Prior knowledge:
This protein has about 250 residues and is of the alpha+beta class. The protein is about 35% helix and about 25% strand. It has a 5-stranded antiparallel β-sheet. The protein has a 4-stranded antiparallel β-sheet with strand order 8-9-10-11, with helices on both faces.
Amino acid sequence: MPLMHFRLASPASLIDINGVDELDYIERKNGMLSIGARTRQAQILTSEAAANAAPLLVEAISYIGHAQIRNRGTVAGSAAHADPAAEVPAALIALGADLECVSRAGTRAVAAADFFTGPFQTVLSDDELLTEIRVPAWPDGTGSAWMELTRIYHGFPVVGAGAVVHMSDGTIDRAGLGLCGMAATPIGADAAIDVLVGSAPSAELVEDATSAALADLEPPADVHGSTAYRTRAGRAYVRRTLTAAITNAGGTL
């Protein structure tokens, strides 16, 4: 629907899944938070299962538009829309989510990091439907944070970053980082994760991880910000989210 609104798509027909009740659910099972394709963004904000298993996703969704948008928009719809500035895709990448794609030929699971191929483009084939999102439930004690820079309140992020960190015996043993508004797709930052995992938190570690996250990026320029501006803002927001996530996980810098 957003693509049609902006005259970027003119489909010959539309399929309405609002009547498919089987796709409306939020369930925690087998160590995963499963979200059906018809689940509204607003439902995530009030879900105890989501709050316990994936607080980063809840926080990211709280930044989306206004109540009317969250009441109609779905989590899967935001993922399939694949706006490189949107919150949900970057949060799913940070959390290590899988997306279930179904067609007559069968079912396949695609990692969020591999799902997005370009602005408003995904690996979905013309005959496929995104039916479920599965988010790993991170262990107790995990810290997370989502932050973004917008031109207007609850507008699309100029840049945004989400971080999730788990610690054991004073050392970071698991981490995730997702960025939006910094490339043609929402992206993860594997190089930053490599810096973080296995190390004790410190201000220097956060700075090194931040530099690693932005090392190979050349953010796009548009009316909202130049490449240089987005790079500088992105660095600040990656640093802040990593710092907050580590602190929320019980670490000290």
